[in-house]
Amino acid sequence: MSAASSGNDCPGKSSGEFDLINRFFRRARDGMAPGVVLGVGDDCALLTPTPGMQLAVSTDTLVEGVHFSADTPAADVGWKALAVNLSDLAAMGATPRGCLLALTLPAINEAWVAAFAQGFFALADTAGCPLLGGDTTCSMPRSAMASSVLPCTMTVTVLGEIPAGEALHRDGARPGDLLCVSGTLGDAALGLARWQRMNRDSQDPTIVRLLRPTPQLVLGIALRGVATAAIDLSDGLLGDVRHILAESSRASGKACGAELQLAALPRSAVLAGLAGPEAYEYMLAGGDDYELCFTVPASRLTALHVAATSVQVPVTVIGRITADGRLRCLAADGGEWQPSRASWEHF
Ligand code: ADP
Ligand code: MG
Questions:
Q1: Of the candidates 162, 177, 168, the residue with the CA atom closest to the CA atom of residue 225
Q2: 308, containing H or E segment
């Protein structure tokens, strides 16, 4: 799209857009990644699909002021913009093939863009996910006052591959399946609470969990053929389990519910130091964990432990799928626990 029609040029900016792309987002190595015919620089990127594989595609946006505060280090924003997308590939059991980045900024701040790119590529290189293209636009209307506060937004699209028919769906849970999660829960939500109280300690493990989530790609791949359903935990355990229940009920025609054992929820040392009810709120309703939540038939429990051990990711059975259509959290004494907060929704 031309700058005139799209408003691509920030006020006072000349060839900034292409200069920015070439300096910060165009890397020779991405254009030479396996199966990549053409990367950044043309109208489209070109990829050679692997025979027998299905393409997994997903997109997610981060908005300044909604998903991260304006004072979040740009490198962490870059990491997280890609991490939340790779987490969706992980939840389907896909292997990353590449990504696209649409960046909308009110103005060009080169130091910010450089740090953003550094964080983005740190994860892209770890995950083997080349950047193949994108779009760079300015959100400042030409008529706007320079003092208007406009948010940065970044939309990442990821492309992955899965052997045909082996993707992990949300709708495959059945009554009797065990409900499991990877890693520990609630750390990022505690990190967010601390961040909102102006804690900016980059060594605080809860803030690291908030700013630099680790997509569980290797586990997702290991769960192919083992898990019956999977989702990544972005909005909070209860809300995300509800998605599995709703989709599985729809697919099976049965009212799938779940029983969660509160005492079984895996927690880090920091969460373990909190009083039970406070820790439960973070673990059940807190978002941003980016762990995987999945179901396995009881008969595959050994296969699950073999798979999880092979990729060295801790997994915990936290409950089971029931046939009563209800989602219940049970305390050690068998009593039901009612969380006070719901999980995150935008509208
Ligand atoms: P077009 O006008 O054809 O959409 P653009 O001028 O937007 O192309 O982009 C030029 C090239 O730079 C394209 O290959 C596009 O994919 C790539 N690109 C633009 N912005 C980014 C970005 N932020 N990161 C990576 N590649 C980008
Ligand atoms: Mg464009």
A1: 168
A2: helix 301-310
Q: Which pLDDT value is given to residue 148?
A: 63
- Angle, vertex CA 126, rays to CA 234 and CA 156, nearest 5: 50
Residue 320 has pLDDT above 70, yes or no: yes
Q: Is the CB of 155 under 6 A from ligand 1?
A: no
Atom of ligand 1 nearest to the CA of 1: 2
25 lines ligand 1 (CB under 6 A): yes
**Per-residue pLDDT tens digits for 200-220:** 999 999 999 999 999 999 999
Q: Using CA positions, which residue lies closest to atom 14 of ligand 1?
A: 41
Please identify which residue in the block is written with the tokens 């006070």.
340
- Among protein residues, the one with the nearest Cα to ligand 1's atom 26 is 133
Q: Tell me which of 8, 13, 19, 21 to substitute to probe ligand 1's pocket, judged by most ligand atoms within 8 Å of the beta carbon.
A: 21
Q: What are the angstrom distances between the C-alpha of 69 and each of 76, 116, 195, 200, 299?
A: 11, 14, 9, 12, 45
Q: By C-alpha distance, which of 211, 216, 346 is closest to 294?
A: 216
Q: Please work out, in degrees rounded to the nearest 5, the angle formed at the alpha carbon of residue 237 by the alpha carbons of 232 and 238.
A: 130
Contact (CB, 8 A) for 307 and 180: no
pLDDT tens-digit readout, 148-193: 678 999 999 999 999 999 999 999 999 999 999 999 999 999 999 9
Contact 86, 158 (CB under 8 A): yes
Query: Which amino acid residue places its CA nearest to atom 24 of ligand 1?
Result: 134
